[in-house]
Design goal:
The longest helix is centred in the last third of the chain and has 29 residues. 13% of the residues lie in helices and 37% in strands. By secondary structure, it is mostly beta strands. The protein is built from eight helices and 45 strands. About 2% of the residues have low confidence. It is globular and about 95 Å long. It comes from Trichonephila clavata.
Length: 677
């Protein structure tokens, strides 16, 4: 098993402090983290110390934080006591601190509704929250001041009090008051600016981590991630303006605990979620105090000149925008939601309706993070909650034997309804060795069932859909070797079954799937026009309430040098259902129809791309393209700049779903080989 033993950082010509690490061979716990030593004094009490500061942490019988104490230079400067309810949720946190020789006590009490959403926090501040049935926060009350939050279809926020929010067609928040936001196609925030105030560019590495922040006054901040065991935790920060280098260290829970600013040492006190509250020097004096709302918005910062990049729950805070970066997503702590929809894990969220929300932060519970067992039958996870880290022990030899394999880390089963990729080829010897290693790593003598999953309530198919099926219940249309085959179950309507079988069976079905005004469009082809009349008679049997059928005499285009008059007659029949459009083209071949659709889709994509550039120029924004003043005038007056043509960035023959996507279009200048992207 490969474990991290040392980090030797070097930024430019500056050699930074080497950091050593060690792990207990029996329990897998950390024993050394840089200058800190980790001890287990009792079975439920541990100490982390570097000789100047000591952090004592005690847990209860369910491995929850009971209290945490920080002692610096032989004086206790910070302590937090926790209380929980029978649902494993935090009900009270009591913080003791010393500042300028004065002791302070801050008590915060939390209340939740039946869905586990935070509804009230009473303490130094008094907060109240109200949510609608979809889980959207509709009112926020702070110290008696009530703020209304409005949402539209799709749980998209449109206003926070008097501050308007604007979203684009992808559901990304692109404007927040006077602030404008720009994203790439990976939903990563690439630019945030406010005219006359600030202009910030963001850059990411190949793993989606924020790597560079560059502002309009010349500050360039670089973020480095040197810990291979916690690859998304920033360990070093470098700013070119003042040459300042920051080294961050985390405890065994991956909470920030120590910061080295050039050669000065500071200690970080966090709450139970890992959010920094206080920063102390080596004498135990407070150099920075941060006070936040329940959802992480900074209400008070005693020393904003002291830059602490790690903020709410370990995210990276931008001091100008107030937005918090978690990997490649951005979080708005003011409204308590993500700035971009989270489509990636939406299928995994189907078994838990509370998580079926694209913008909600931790199910509207910012107080309890990753608490409780995800699967009560997971023995490995239960052992982890007892303080033994099996991942670092690697009993099955995954990290050694399957080095570089993506499958080696797939210990937990994916939900059954998620389509899995094709099973990869594997040799018989490799399979045999893997099975023996897995049997050796089993923590029980009871053999797991080979036909039954431990996820007792896992469903084989998704049960949630916002749209109805396009053909009716029990009817499917499959693509078999390029031909449409209609199948129907016993519960399918007889008329629909007969009509769709007569119209669609054995016609060509294209592998091209586009959208039109939010509706899915499917394309089918018939070689000649003889069946147009018969098919229309069949479709009339469905009635206008079920589908709306329209007939279009197709306008011929010049293809392969042939004028339109010499081409065969073609007809389009479009079947409009409530949630889909089916287009049948008569009198052509599948390949010709596919090429025609791709040409049409490209014209649409290029037109949309020019419209985007015109909107950027008209709103005085700095877009990704550098146009001359003459070209800007042309785009505003005619909708495009002369001398440029739109081309695809990704080949649509390989990715046909990007055919009508304007983000897949770049502008190519006709008289040279330079690309404008």
């Amino acid at each position: 098993m490969q474990r991290l033993v040392m980090i030797i950082p070097k930024i430019g010509n500056a050699q930074l402090l080497p950091l050593e690490f060690s792990t207990n061979l029996t329990t897998g716990r950390k024993e050394q983290i840089g200058p800190f030593r980790c001890y287990e004094r009792l079975h439920n009490e541990s100490i982390i110390s570097d000789g100047v500061a000591s952090v004592t942490r005690q847990i209860d019988s369910l491995y929850r934080l009971k209290f945490l104490s920080i002692v610096i230079s032989d004086k206790e400067v910070y302590r937090i006591d926790m209380q929980y309810d029978n649902r494993n949720a935090v009900t009270q946190s009591k913080i003791y601190m010393k500042h300028l020789g004065v002791s302070k006590v801050r008590v915060q009490n939390y209340s939740y509704d039946e869905d586990g959403q935070l509804v009230e926090m009473v303490g130094r501040d008094h907060w109240k929250f109200h949510y609608d049935v979809n889980g959207n926060m509709v009112t926020m009350q702070y110290m008696g001041n009530k703020i209304d939050i409005q949402h539209v279809t799709g749980d998209r926020i449109v206003s926070f009090g008097e501050t308007p929010y604007v979203l684009d067609g992808r559901g990304f928040v692109i404007q927040r008051g006077e602030e404008r936001l720009v994203y790439n196609t990976k939903r990563q925030l690439t630019r945030a600016f406010r005219v006359g105030r600030y202009d910030i560019d963001y850059y990411y590495d190949g793993r989606g981590r924020l790597s560079v922040r560059k502002d309009n006054v010349g500050n360039v901040t670089q973020f480095f991630y040197a810990d291979t065991e916690q690859p998304f935790s920033v360990t070093h920060i470098y700013n070119n303006a003042d040459g300042r280098t920051i080294t961050l260290m985390y405890d065994d829970r991956n909470y920030p605990m120590f910061i080295l600013l050039n050669k000065e040492s500071f200690y970080i006190a966090t709450d139970h979620t890992g959010s920094p509250l206080l920063v102390y020097d080596v004498y135990g004096d407070v150099v920075k105090e941060i006070h936040r709302g329940p959802y992480g918005h900074v209400l008070f910062d005693s020393n904003p000149n002291f830059y602490l990049p790690v903020d709410f729950q370990g995210g990276l805070l931008d001091p100008m925008t107030g937005l918090i970066h978690f990997g490649d997503r951005v979080y708005d702590s003011l409204v308590g939601q993500w700035m971009t929809p989270g489509w990636d894990d939406i299928l995994k969220s189907l078994p838990n309706p509370k998580r079926f929300h694209l913008y909600r932060f931790n199910e509207n519970d910012p107080v309890n993070v990753n608490h409780g067992l995800k699967n009560k039958l997971d023995l490995k996870e239960w052992i982890h909650y007892q303080g033994i880290n099996l991942d670092t022990l690697d009993l099955a030899g995954h990290a050694v034997y399957n080095r570089g394999s993506q499958l080696s880390n797939c210990v937990d089963f994916e939900p059954l309804f998620i389509d899995l990729p094709t099973v990869p080829l594997i040799s018989g010897l490799t399979c045999s060795v893997q099975q023996k290693l897995l049997r050796f790593a089993q923590l029980t003598s009871v053999q797991k069932s080979k036909v039954k999953r431990e996820q007792l309530f896992d469903s084989a198919l998704p049960k949630i859909s916002t749209h109805n099926v396009p053909f009716g219940k029990g009817i499917t249309v499959s693509n078999i070797n390029g031909k449409a085959i209609v199948r129907a179950s016993a519960r399918a309507e007889i008329i629909r079954k007969d009509v769709f079988s007569a119209v669609f069976n054995n016609c060509h079905i294209l592998d091209l799937h586009l959208t039109f005004h939010g509706l899915d469009v499917f394309y089918l082809v018939k070689d000649n026009t003889r069946r147009v009349g018969d098919d229309l008679n069949q479709l009339q049997r469905l009635g206008n309430s079920a589908v709306n059928t329209t007939v279009h005499e197709s306008k011929q285009e010049e293809v392969d040098g042939l004028p339109p008059s010499s081409q065969p007659h073609q007809v389009d029949v479009r079947i409009h259902s409530h949630h889909a459009i089916l287009n049948i083209r008569y009198g052509t071949s599948p390949e010709k129809e596919r090429q025609r659709l791709l040409r049409h889709a490209k014209r649409q994509a290029v037109s949309k791309r020019w419209s985007q550039e015109r909107d950027i120029i008209s709103s005085n924004q700095r877009g990704p393209l550098k146009w001359s003043e003459r070209e800007k005038e042309q785009i505003l007056s005619t909708g495009q700049a002369s001398g440029y043509r739109g081309e695809y960035f990704h080949d649509v023959s390989l990715y046909p779903e990007l055919a009508d996507d304007p983000s897949n279009v770049f502008f190519h200048k006709n008289n040279d080989r330079h690309r404008k992207r």
